[in-house]
Amino acid sequence: MSDELTAKLDRIPDPKTGKGLQAAGRLDGVAVRNGVATIVLKVEPDEAIDRLKADIESAAREVDEVDRVQIITTLQRPAGGGRDKAAPRQASAAAPRPARQIIAVAAGKGGVGKSTVAANLAAALAKAGQRVAVLDADIHGPSIPRLFGLRDIKGLRKTDTGIEPADAHGVRVVSMGFLTKPGQPVVWRGPMIQGAIQQFLNETYWGDPDVLIIDMPPGTGDAQLAIAQTVSIDGAVIACTPQDLALDDARKAIAMFEKTHTPILGLIENMSVFLCPHCGEPSEIFGHGGTRAEAEAIGVPFLGEIPLTIELRERSDTGRPVAFDDGPVADAFARAAMAMLDSAREARKPAPEIVFSS
Ligand SMILES: Nc1ncnc2c1ncn2[C@@H]1O[C@H](COP(=O)(O)OP(=O)(O)OP(=O)(O)O)[C@@H](O)[C@H]1O
Ligand SMILES: [Mg+2]
């Protein structure tokens, strides 16, 4: 099917070279799955592509199995840019910045509570009066729709102003989960993931929020690279759990951000002490304090501890992050969110000028 589609697309001439799109190297990926044709098209900055997109769409619809066509554009620099291909590209200057501050929430390994922390930091900021947006960059396992009670959203609307984010209690949310069916894993190659993330970042009508929180997928793969290539991130928050005493995984995440010159805003210890739902008594099930010690050892701020609570787990399923409301867990997120903003402010300060005496 993909071959048939590629052949059809190759009959469309590339407006610049006149060669077929495939022969001209304009196609970065072509796939047909479950009736959806996904085509990753390379475009140059400021290139008018409406006509081309329409031609691609009608060619794709000629393939019997195709019910829906999704065209993802990836920004190509014109040839001769002189950049080292292996080095992360900087964000495109042409695209408007999606937010005043962009903060990624990441971890070296899965399941430590990145998404829970990302959603609740966003909620804490919104509660404090900030305009907040969330981008779920976890294309393979998006959990932001569930955390914000947006599981019913099927598809995103695109208007003249751009892709319209969903609204969750005043927070603007975009997730790949809105475009896929639950339980249907997205099987995409690297360029497709990069294209989807670039498109979300560049083409969403974010509405100039104060802070955009990006929930990162686990690991150090294509999504991370795509983000680094598309926008300049103000900083990253690394979530850890206390049992990662060696915190090797957190170090891996830190190393990845350092490669793209992204400041580390701090470490946050999730699933710290267990708060008993009956008596409120804290118990140190996984130990406690390892993250603070690690942050001190590597010289990055420690943003705080989030307790392990049944309420937090339950709220993940009900779709209203705890940090919107009041209570000890909401307070812990509020403190962490403020520490994160303080750290971002520090990170923006220019390095002190060193004056050498003669
Ligand atoms: N502090 C906490 N107290 C209780 N449960 C928690 C807490 N933090 C996270 N959880 C639960 O742990 C599970 C994993 O959390 P979450 O999905 O946020 O992790 P993640 O690091 O984003 O995972 P992935 O790597 O799959 O993206 C979820 O069921 C969540 O509700
Ligand atoms: Mg997650």
- Give average pLDDT, whole number: 83
- So what's the overall shape? globular
The largest sheet is: 8 strands, mixed
Strand line-up across the major sheet = 8-9-5-10-4-11-12-15
The helicity comes to: 25-40%
Tally of contiguous helical segments = 10
Structural class category: alpha/beta
Count of domain modules: 2
Q: Give the quaternary arrangement of the chains.
A: single chain
Distance between the termini: 73 Å
How many strand segments?
Answer: 15
* Strand residues, percent: 15-25%
Using only C-alpha atoms, the radius of gyration works out to 22 Å
CATH architecture grouping of the largest domain:
3-Layer(aba) Sandwich
Ligand types: adenosine-5'-triphosphate, magnesium ion
How are helices and strands ordered from N to C?
A: HEEHEEHEHEEEEHEHEHEEEHEHH
Tell me the CATH superfamily of the largest domain: P-loop containing nucleotide triphosphate hydrolases
- What is the class of the largest domain in the CATH system? Alpha Beta
- CATH topology assignment of the largest domain: Rossmann fold
Unreliable residue stretches: 77-93
Question: Please, could you describe this protein's structure?
Answer:
The protein is an alpha/beta fold. It folds into two domains: 2-75, Fe-S cluster assembly (FSCA) (GMP Synthetase, Chain A, domain 3, 2-Layer Sandwich), CATH 3.30.300.130; 101-348, Rossmann fold (3-Layer(aba) Sandwich), CATH 3.40.50. 31% of the residues lie in helices and 20% in strands. The protein is built from ten helices and 15 strands. It has helices at 2-9, 50-61, 114-127, 144-147, 190-203, 222-230, 248-259, 290-298, 310-318, 328-348, and strands at residues 27-33, 36-43, 68-75, 101-106, 132-136, 158-159, 162-163, 166-168, 171-175, 211-215, 235-240, 264-269, 274-275, 282-283, 302-305. An eight-stranded mixed sheet has the order 8-9-5-10-4-11-12-15, with helices on both faces. The chain has a three-stranded mixed sheet with strand order 1-2-3, sandwiched between helices. Strand 6 (158-159) and strand 7 form a beta hairpin. Helix 3 (114-127) packs across helix 10 (328-348). The longest helix is centred in the C-terminal third of the chain and has 21 residues, at 328-348. Residues 77-93 have low confidence and may be disordered. The chain binds adenosine-5'-triphosphate and magnesium ion (MG). Adenosine-5'-triphosphate is lined by residues 107, 110-116, 138, 141, 143, 218, 270-271, 306, 308-309, 312-313, 316.
